[in-house]
């Protein structure tokens, strides 16, 4: 993976000599799989692909040979390096602050695409600094940018000011001195009487399918966990609708200037298949059903105030002109020789029936959107839209399923919490290490002020008591915005969905067991 900066500044990788080209005009990201991502960096005179201007700060995929123009200068593809064939290597591990890296690090000193480690097919590891701003050091020695340096287990690797030694370990080849290792295995096996185990083939990893995989760090699943931003409004439905042919019997709470009262909120969700389905909480999908007693009192007071506004004294100055017009249309159609006196009589009967009618309080979603970790955002309007496709229907199982409108999980998300891999056995307190990824306190904590990108919190935890039928408690705080966060084990298997905390304190988090999410998912798709 390589970042190419393009502009008129001498510090750019591709320097364009034109007064119309901005100093930092655009960027290209060359991915290891051959894909090329182009982004205009808010240039003065724009970037064009096939003579069509692309939006600033929006990534677009291009192909080598496409006609691309920066202001008045056409891109010469000969100046764009060709990414080395990834098939030559057993693995390529990119390191940096950008979400596309296999190892994502944070801090003020590491670069977006800081360094790359390549594992050859004969088991050797080479580290290359990618032209980072603050350099890469191996055992205290700074690497020359672009030069491959062989590394091995035990070497200390610093990117900028971040020590990535431990994060590299899962990728580094393990030395295999045949004689000593074989002798040690035979002796150990003989002592315990299990020599035959030497010949048992290794099971493939349930996440990546590789045999002998030692598991996946929690960081691998970071791209699959998204920030949720949504908004809804309350709807009041009258059981006794006096004019069904003219009105649907519904009233939407509005403010003094006749605007719908919209209630924004934030949460967390995570991908569970490749068709754009995500899991979250039921109280995220239908928040109006979790209104407080205080909210209910406010709503009922608003309904009473609304009905009072249609009395004789207030009717002429009523702000809800649409409903007032509906009453008039109804009276005109149902009252022969309508006079002002007859109109007021008809109106009074209608309002009297509504005052006596029972009504239900529900809600409707205005929008529900998601923002991806590591992606650059200037406004929440840039988030992608999704919708609610299923929710448990009960408080006992606080789970729901969303789906992206394009019904697709982004291709750059390598690992997701696939339903087939859910851990559905009963958890034991303080036995297994667990992890959770989410957005506690929403964008206040998650938004990187410099990069304008979302960064979820990743925490280690454990089951803290014997699970009940539907839920289990876990160690650590649960803060608003973290609702819908995945809780998973060291193998990358989902064990639960975070939904809240015990009311006695924020250090007692609670989650719904993963098996109920699996049941709901299978029911939604019609699986047995």
Task: Describe the overall structure.
With 528 residues, this protein is α+β, with helices and mostly antiparallel strands. It has eight helices and 33 strands. The strands form seven sheets. The chain has a six-stranded antiparallel barrel. Strands 29-26-31-32-33-30 form a six-stranded antiparallel beta sheet. The chain has a five-stranded mixed beta sheet with strand order 2-1-3-4-7, with no helix packed on it. Helix 5 (321-334) packs across helix 6. The radius of gyration is 30 Å and the shape is globular. It starts with a strand and ends with a helix. The model is unreliable at 194-199 (pLDDT under 50).
Structural class, from secondary structure content? alpha+beta
> What's the total count of β strands?
33
The major pleated sheet works out as: 6 strands, antiparallel, barrel
Proportion of helical residues = 10-25%
Please give the count of helices: 8
Low-confidence stretches: 194-199
The end-to-end distance, rounded to whole angstroms, is 43 Å
Tell me the β content.
25-35%
Shape call: globular
Give a brief description:
By secondary structure, this protein is α+β, with helices and mostly antiparallel strands. The chain contains 8 helices and 33 strands.
């Amino acid at each position: 993976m390589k970042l190419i900066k393009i502009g008129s500044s001498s510090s750019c990788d591709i320097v364009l000599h034109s007064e119309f080209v901005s100093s930092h005009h655009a960027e290209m990201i060359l991915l290891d799989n051959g894909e090329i991502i182009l982004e205009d960096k808010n240039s003065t005179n724009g970037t064009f692909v096939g003579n069509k201007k692309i939006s600033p700060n929006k990534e677009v995929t291009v192909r080598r040979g496409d006609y691309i123009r920066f202001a008045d200068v056409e891109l010469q593809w000969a100046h764009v390096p060709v990414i080395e064939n990834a098939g030559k290597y057993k693995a390529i591990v990119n390191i940096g602050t950008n979400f596309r890296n296999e190892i994502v690090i944070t801090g003020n000193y590491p670069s977006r695409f800081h360094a790359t480690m390549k594992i050859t097919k004969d088991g050797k590891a080479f580290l290359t600094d990618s032209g980072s701003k603050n350099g890469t050091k191996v055992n205290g020695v700074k690497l020359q940018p672009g030069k491959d340096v062989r590394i091995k287990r035990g070497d200390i690797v610093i990117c900028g000011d971040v020590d990535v030694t431990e994060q590299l370990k899962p990728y580094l080849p393990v030395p295999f001195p045949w004689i000593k290792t074989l002798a040690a295995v035979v002796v150990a096996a003989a002592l315990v009487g299990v020599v035959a185990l030497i010949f048992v083939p290794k099971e493939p990893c349930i996440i990546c399918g590789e045999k002998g995989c030692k598991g996946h760090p929690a960081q691998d699943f970071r791209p699959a966990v998204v920030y949720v931003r949504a908004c809804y409004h309350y709807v009041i439905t009258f059981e006794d609708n006096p004019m069904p042919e003219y009105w649907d019997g519904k009233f939407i709470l509005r403010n003094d200037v006749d605007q719908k009262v919209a209630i924004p909120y934030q949460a967390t969700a995570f991908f569970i298949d490749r068709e754009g389905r995500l899991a979250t909480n039921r109280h995220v999908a239908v928040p109006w059903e979790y209104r407080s007693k205080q909210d209910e009192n406010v709503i009922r007071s608003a309904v009473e105030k609304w009905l009072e506004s249609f009395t004789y004294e207030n009717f002429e100055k009523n702000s809800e002109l649409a409903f007032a017009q509906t009453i008039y249309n109804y009276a005109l159609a149902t009252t022969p020789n309508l006079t002002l006196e007859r109109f007021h009589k008809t109106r009074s009967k209608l309002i009297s029936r509504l005052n006596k009618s029972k009504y239900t309080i529900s809600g409707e979603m205005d929008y529900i959107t998601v923002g991806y970790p590591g992606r650059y955002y200037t406004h929440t309007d840039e988030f992608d839209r999704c919708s609610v496709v299923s929710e448990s229907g009960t408080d006992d199982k606080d789970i729901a399923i969303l789906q992206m409108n394009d019904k697709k999980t982004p291709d750059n998300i390598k690992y997701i919490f696939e339903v087939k891999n859910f851990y559905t056995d009963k958890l034991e307190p303080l036995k297994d290490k667990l992890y959770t990824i989410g957005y506690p306190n929403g964008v206040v904590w998650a938004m990187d002020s410099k990069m304008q990108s979302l960064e979820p919190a990743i925490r280690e935890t454990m089951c803290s008591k014997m699970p009940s039928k539907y839920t289990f408690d876990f160690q650590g705080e649960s803060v608003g915005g973290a609702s819908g966060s995945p809780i998973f084990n060291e193998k990358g298997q989902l064990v639960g969905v975070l939904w809240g905390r015990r009311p006695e304190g924020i250090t007692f988090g609670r989650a719904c067991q993963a098996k109920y999410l699996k049941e709901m998912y299978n029911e939604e798709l019609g699986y047995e």
